Amino acid sequence: MNIALFGTSADPPTIGHQVVLEWLVQRFDLVAVWASDNPFKGNQTPLEHRQQMLRRLVDQVQVPQIQHDPNLSDPRTLNTVNTARLRWPAAQFTLVVGSDVLPTLLHWHRVAELLRLVKILVVPRSGAPLMEATLQALRSQQAEVAIADFLGPDISSSAYRNTGNSAGLPETISTYIQEHDLYPKPTDSLELPSDLPLAGFNVGVDNVIFSVDTNHNQLLVLLAVRQTPPYVGQWALPGTLVRQGEALENAAYRILSEKIRVQNLYLEQLYTFGGPNRDPRESAESSRYLSVSYFAVVRYEEAILMSDERHLISWHPIGQIPPLAFDHAQILAYGHNRLRNKLEYSPVAFDVLPDLFTLSDLYQLYRTVLGDQFSDYSNFRARILKLGFLAATGQKVGRGAGRPASLYRFDAEAFAPLKDKPMVFI
Predict the structure, then answer these.
(1) Most buried one in 48, 77, 271, 411, CB count within 10 A?
(2) Which CATH superfamily is domain 201-345 in?
(3) CATH no., domain 2-180
(4) CB-based contact 122:146 (threshold 8 Å)
(5) How confident is the model over 258-297, as pLDDT tens digits?
(6) What does the domain layout of the chain look like in residue ranges?
(7) What φ, ψ does residue 364 adopt, rounded to 5°?
(8) Which of the four pLDDT bands, split at 50, 70 and 90, describes residue 344?
């Protein structure tokens, strides 16, 4: 049994926490929830009230696989995990943390022991970007870390405490707060004036196009030099404004077709970036600019650039990215995290590889994207074959002076029971 351990210091719980629970329950056999007694936070509402609000939230979701267990609450997460192990001795545990909490994790009580007992699943939060240095530090401690393919609503508990606006709270939580008069009313409202004009929007699509160069063990991203204002002459992600009557996905494919020619690729919508002032063309009197971003993955060996003007469009190693226009650095970072996470639990690699491939082809793709800390080849080979979704074809291919390598085919039907299970491949 795979169990997600989700403790939250939410004060109060919001619709955002409810959405996280609903996402987790689709990917784990059981989600154990409790209100955490966080020693790093002060001036919190008494734990008893936070447990009661969380219980109401769990009751509202009405999914039996979510269990609220106040006995798991402890200032030290290691004690919580040991309590969970006593209750579910045969289970495998994944500790769910927000990206805002992640930088403190290495300072937790007996963290090395904790990381041996659980996997870590990081849920991205708006305003708390994931730092590669933090992830590398965790992995250097042999931690198994995955990034959730998910960004919940930008709703925080502090927004309610600061404004008193209950729009982000489930009704059952608002009722409980009123019944117990839990939070002082703010003296100043942070709401925007009600007479602001409605915003008009221009909708664009920006593509984060990754290529995997397994020969040189490099993950690359395609960048183009902007030819029109603003940011003329600066590197940016390939993008376009959406045409009249054009579907968003078709615009993403149009970008791909204008930039590269490739036979095998994976494409997925990433996120919508639409904060005010993200584009210098905006002003109080003009339209806002939204970016609906997509990410794509191709093999570098197969991808042919449609332009020979390499000074205007080229592949860049992910660790050597020049300054980017707009908020494209944020979009790229978000896409990179999504790609790493998708590879850890979904069959993205098989959309990129040819129909027939060797285990070495597959391993090199994973190692290139996930880094040198990824599993060694012998362990990867044993685990991937044991999972049972690679079908041997009986064919072999010779490369160099070594023995011919066996060719395999991805069996989507055999993979179906594992779909959306976290960290299948690591």
Answers:
(1) 77
(2) Nucleoside Triphosphate Pyrophosphohydrolase (3.90.79.10)
(3) 3.40.50.620
(4) yes
(5) 999 998 999 999 888 887 778 888 875 578 899 999 999 9
(6) 2-180, 201-345, 354-418
(7) -65, -35
(8) confident
288 bridge partner residues: 201
Question: Where are the alpha helices (H) located in 200-309, listed in sequence order?
Answer: 248-259
Q: Kind and range of the H or E element at 68?
A: strand 66-68
Are 80 and 109 contacting, i.e. CB atoms less than 8 angstroms apart?
Answer: no
Give the DSSP letter string of 313-381: EEEEETTSPPPBSTTHHHHHHHHHHHHHHHHHHS-HHHHHS-SSB-HHHHHHHHHHHH-TTSPPHHHHH
**Concatenated DSSP letters for 115-127?**
HHHEEEEEE-BTT
Q: pLDDT tens digits, residue range 244-266? A: 999 999 999 999 999 999 989 99
Angle between helices 171-180 and 47-61 (to 10 degrees): 150
Per residue in 365-402, pLDDT tens? 999 988 776 778 998 999 899 989 999 999 999 877 77
- Which residues are registered as beta bridge partners of 212? 219, 299
How many Å apart are CA 407 and CA 405, to the nearest integer? Answer: 7
- Identify the three-state secondary structure at position 155: coil
- The answer to whether 203 touches 191, Cβ cutoff 8 Å, is no
**The domain 354-418 is classified under which CATH number: 3.30.420.40, 1.10.3720.10, 1.10.10.10, 1.10.1740.10?**
1.10.10.10
Stretch (H or E) spanning 273: strand 265-273
User: φ, ψ for residue 84 (rounded to 5)?
Assistant: -65, -40
